[in-house]
Amino acid sequence: MAEPDILIYVATRYLPEHAPEQPGKYAFAYHITIQNRSDVTVQLLNRYWLITDANGKSSEIRGAGVVGKQPIIEPGDEFQYTSGAIIDTPVGNMQGYYEMTTDNGLEFRAPIDIFTLAVPNVIN
Q: Which PROSITE patterns is this protein grouped with (predicted)?
């Protein structure tokens, strides 16, 4: 059986109002839409993120579910959530994957393509 067709869309936003107390930290929100374009039900079990700032400093995030949930996504449906990241530079990027399973037990990874975190007008 082929892996289910899962599409992942990302929109990012700089959050100057959420900047940490210490200088040199930049807060970003990312809004994720996960679309199940297959004919089987899937469940998101775990997440993995690789977050890299402009200095090359990387951090890895692994954990169960997203925003406290392990959503079940029916065929043709989607799941959306918003979360955040704090990095040391005004520009960085994120990439990763979701570990998912189908209702018949097939486990697979749905990749999340690299996307940019950037303070507006920093990149021309």
A: APAG
